[in-house]
Write a structure and sequence with these properties.
Layout lengths: L1 E4 L6 E5 L3 E7 L5 E8 L5 H6 L3 H8 L3 E2 L2 E5 L2 E8 L1 H6 L25 E9 L2 E4 L4 E3 L12 E4 L4 E8 L7 E10 L1
Length: 183
């Protein structure tokens, strides 16, 4: 587990609903955010994911800066590889995989052999590295507890997602870059 206390100028995001809390941590550029959606019940992730939709996503990312928050998160690394060959073929994109495949780009005709996507996220005490290699640096801070501090203790399964935003504002999402579950 890693422990971090945010600084006032970092402007982390903290939102909460009836059965969840969500922490938004900006990457260094503030164009991307790591959000951790934690159910309030220890075994509540499955129920929370059943109700997850665009409305809940909007509630999670609405801009609500918190001055200071004590955060405890597990150190984790998740890698996922998706083979898109069958998916694209099911949509009718078959010629790119056949001998007549890709024309007008090369002197000779080429075809697509594999179409894959690899996603990777590594969260540790030094920061977060995503597949785009965007990094947020974290430094250990004092463990002094103040009354205005919030606490986010992720000691049970949670969902996470990385968003790309407009104008460095967390609730102006352009796209969700990746999502995952930590069990």
């Amino acid at each position: 587990m890693m422990y971090k206390v945010s600084e006032e100028d970092e402007k982390w995001n903290f939102t909460e609903g009836e059965n969840w809390i969500c922490l938004g941590i900006p990457y260094k550029s503030r164009n991307s955010w790591l959000h951790v959606l934690l159910p309030t019940q220890k075994f509540g992730l499955a129920a929370l994911l059943k109700e997850f939709n665009s409305d809940l996503l909007k509630k999670c990312i609405i801009e609500r800066n918190v001055k200071r928050i004590r955060v405890t998160l597990p150190v984790f690394q998740i890698e996922n590889k998706v083979d898109f060959n069958d998916i694209l073929k099911s949509f009718g994109l078959t010629q790119i995989f056949e001998g007549c495949g890709v024309k007008n780009i090369f002197n000779e005709t080429h075809f697509v052999d594999k179409f894959m996507q690899l996603c990777n996220i590594d969260v540790n005490q030094y920061g977060t590295t995503a597949s785009a290699a965007t990094v947020a640096t974290m430094q250990l801070a004092s463990k002094t507890i103040r009354e205005e501090e919030r606490e986010f203790y992720a000691d049970h399964p949670f969902a996470f997602f990385v968003t790309l935003v407009d104008n460095n504002i967390p609730d102006q999402v352009k796209s969700v870059l990746m999502m995952g579950i930590y069990n």
